[in-house]
């Protein structure tokens, strides 16, 4: 007797899975651009501007991969089914913006076309935030983290919005032009990305076991929110700023650690109770370890005498990749695995292995180089080659992961 066919997914799940698959395609594109940037560092090409490609890489990674994947998760966990038509229309607008940025940033950087498309995405993001805010259930810890993530996401948009007027005033070489970019990165990485993922994790736990320690989690939210808001000062320490700015950065780092210690027991309990396969457990462990490391690194970077380490180019890139490739991306892949949006088999296994190995190579090389620079020691031997090797492995991993996402059948 043949097995009974599995039921088709709900409209919400089908829509969410399509959003995730589109996100995966942008993930491959972002990884491909990242690999080319590594190659460009040792073999520059005529007619190619590194800074322009870097803008394309970051925007497609943030908005094509992470934002689209977050839409998929939000459809399942937070948005009411009555929103389907609005979300479909909004999703199309956002993809037009993503494709426009992909077609314009590599050739002109921040200019009329790219700014127009990025502004379109900002408008779409604001509409998405309004819908999520309206559907967030009141008085619960997951809702609190979700709403805070949306505040940080909208707050981060002030950075890009300031670039146009500053460029018009011929302030591209001003330190505050660079700070506007750092402002955006800070509230994206440390605010929008992480608070949304915490909200999704807590909501998933709540759906399985409603007995969450709400008071404890609300305290964690308060400390983490205050710390994240104040820690934007860490992005300004490379400028000649008053001493009190450094003090705020240090106190904010301490506040974040208090929030982490309050939140961490719930995360560890969820990790221990989760039914995870070995590779999925490795992804969860990587995300959890990098999540903890991120807070300690920020506190360390705010200590007097170590500010030069925090503003070093290699440590800055290493920190951004720590969050993006060590926390956010493993969490998204884990979500796809646990919800059977990704076909389990050789492709997904190779993809996860590529992600883990490539991440280890690049992070090890970046932070080791930053440490050697701080200690005034000779640079890492074959640093560029190591970074290229790590990027090749990461790119191969994204190809396998995307293949596993796109090959998954709709009725599984």
Task: Please describe the topology of this protein.
Elements: H1 11-42, H2 50-77, H3 84-108, H4 112-135, H5 141-156, H6 158-168, H7 175-208, H8 214-230, H9 243-273, H10 278-301, H11 307-310, H12 313-338, H13 346-374, H14 383-407
Helix pairs in contact: 1-2, 1-14, 2-3, 2-7, 2-12, 3-4, 4-5, 5-7, 5-8, 6-7, 7-12, 8-9, 9-10, 10-12, 12-13, 13-14
Task: Report on the architecture of this protein.
By secondary structure, the chain is mainly α. Helices cover 79% and strands 0% of the residues. The protein contains 14 helices and no strands. Helix 12 packs antiparallel against helix 13. The radius of gyration is 21 Å and the shape is globular. The relative contact order is 0.09.
Features:
single chain; 412 residues; mainly alpha; disordered N terminus
Summarize the structure.
The chain has about 400 residues and is mainly alpha-helical. The chain contains 14 helices and no strands.
